[in-house]
């Protein structure tokens, strides 16, 4: 079974694609974004996937790739186009190459034009393709920088994308209106720059007059991406380090019961259950403070700002919302007790008033 996820970086309107093979747990990410590496790592973890490869469709001009960070945090390899000129990759891809993950393959097609090294990746069944900035939904990548070449782009689309089956779904690297997917047939009929009947000359004229401002990040992004996103002083996204925390795909910092038990003297535990639960059979953690969730916003100013907060409840759900509320109120160091008092007790940890 194929696992497929389309992820968005709202800042640059970039789509990152996760493809995983359920049988082997092996996955690839296409066009990961530097600033989203924690999100991507959390999703891989929650889906039980091991990242084998981070792949870029091209040397991006508008965001820094997450490839280097993912390699150094998760141990994956990096694959980029040979023609893109980036250094530091483990695999250099050319037209006709094949990328395997588990039992599945992506076919590599060279589709230059937006940049000289643009690649399109076609899934083995030819029903899904990732077009990077070659073909966008009812648009194309621009051709006015990074070896851009409108004629090459026109030919790439016609020879490498429009030759796929009409119902092949196309997933681009960007969409600036929030559109997510298109198909070969749709683009052949309705793409305003490339639909049937539009000649190469028409396309070249269209592209010459796009008149787009350069991407805001271009001066930072291109040099970084030519090194596969190596940070070189750029601040790396990190999970908070005041405790052994994990960041969930939902965006919540979490701590496991055994780790909290070790830290009880250094953090304040805020139990957001109702009073009857606090004195009920699950008991409560020693030195915890009871602040029912409904009163948290009002009573938060009385919490100690110097000590990190761990929130707790019965199952870990209400306390996750408590973390969100505390963050909004400026408590930067707040994490959720994963699994709540149920997991705390199941881990054999002591609870005041807890029934055996
Ligand atoms: N406003 C965006 C512009 C991004 C941009 O120029 N994107 C390139 C892809 S890297 C493109 O081809 N855009 C096509 C379009 O906007 O129609 C930014 O500053 O990042
Ligand atoms: Fe691009």
Strand segment count: 20
Distance between the termini: 43 Å
Q: State Rg.
A: 25 Å
Tally the helices: 11
Instruction: Please give the largest β-sheet.
Output: 6 strands, mixed
Mean pLDDT metric:
97
Classify the helix fraction into a percent range. 10-25%
How much beta, percentage-wise?
Answer: 15-25%
Strand order of the largest sheet: 1-2-3-4-5-6
**Quaternary structure classification:** single chain
Q: Which class of secondary structure composition applies to the elements?
A: alpha/beta
- Which residues sit in consecutive blocks of at least 5 with pLDDT less than 50? none
Outline, from the CA principal axes?
elongated
Ligand inventory reads: glutathione, fe (ii) ion
Compact overview of the structure:
The chain has helices at residues 37-46, 67-74, 150-161, 184-190, 200-208, 218-225, 257-263, 275-278, 296-299, 318-328, 340-346, and strands at residues 2-9, 14-21, 26-30, 50-55, 77-81, 91-93, 98-101, 104-110, 119-123, 128-132, 135-136, 139-140, 169-172, 182-183, 246-247, 253-255, 268-271, 289-290, 309-312, 334-337.
What does this structure look like?
The strands form 4 sheets. A 6-stranded mixed beta sheet has the order 1-2-3-4-5-6, with helices on one face. It has a 6-stranded mixed beta sheet with strand order 7-8-9-10-13-14. Strands 15-16-20-19-17-18 form a 6-stranded mixed beta sheet. By secondary structure, the chain is an alpha/beta fold. The protein starts with a strand and ends in a 10-residue tail after the last helix. β4, α2 (67-74) and β5 form a beta-alpha-beta unit. It contains 11 helices and 20 strands. The structure holds glutathione and fe (ii) ion (FE2). Residues 12, 60-62, 114, 133, 139, 141-142, 174, 176, 212, 215-217 line the site of glutathione (GSH).
């Amino acid at each position: 079974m194929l696992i497929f996820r389309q992820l968005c970086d709202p800042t640059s309107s970039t789509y990152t694609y996760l493809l995983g093979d359920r049988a082997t747990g092996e996955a690839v990410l296409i066009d990961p974004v530097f600033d989203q590496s924690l999100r991507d790592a959390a999703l891989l973890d929650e889906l039980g996937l091991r990242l084998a490869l981070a792949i870029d469709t091209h040397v991006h001009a508008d965001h820094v790739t997450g490839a280097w960070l993912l390699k150094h945090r998760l141990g994956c390899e990096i694959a980029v186009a040979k023609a893109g000129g980036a250094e530091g990759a483990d695999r250099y891809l050319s037209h006709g190459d094949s990328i395997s993950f588990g039992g599945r393959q992506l076919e590599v097609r060279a589709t230059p034009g937006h940049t000289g090294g643009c690649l399109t990746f076609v899934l083995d069944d030819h029903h899904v393709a990732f077009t990077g900035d070659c073909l966008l939904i009812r648009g194309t990548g621009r051709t006015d920088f990074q070896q851009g070449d409108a004629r090459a782009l026109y030919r790439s689309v016609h020879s490498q994308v429009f030759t796929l089956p009409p119902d092949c779904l196309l997933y681009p690297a960007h969409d600036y209106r929030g559109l997510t997917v298109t198909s070969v047939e749709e683009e052949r009929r309705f793409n305003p720059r490339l639909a049937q009947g539009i000649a190469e000359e028409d396309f070249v004229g269209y592209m010459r007059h796009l008149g787009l401002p350069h991407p805001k990040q271009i001066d930072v992004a291109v040099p970084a991406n030519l090194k596969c996103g190596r940070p070189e002083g750029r601040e790396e996204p990190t999970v908070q380090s005041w405790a052994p925390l994990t960041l969930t795909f939902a965006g919540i910092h979490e701590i496991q019961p055994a780790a909290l038990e070790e830290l009880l003297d250094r953090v304040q535990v805020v139990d957001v259950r109702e009073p009857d639960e606090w004195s009920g059979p699950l008991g409560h953690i020693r030195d915890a403070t009871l602040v029912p969730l409904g009163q948290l916003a009002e009573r938060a100013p009385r919490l100690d700002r110097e000590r990190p907060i761990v929130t707790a409840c019965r199952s870990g759900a209400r306390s996750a919302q408590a973390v969100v509320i505390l963050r909004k109120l400026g408590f930067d160091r707040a994490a959720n007790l994963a699994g709540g008092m149920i997991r705390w007790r199941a881990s054999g940890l002591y609870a005041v008033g807890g029934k055996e």
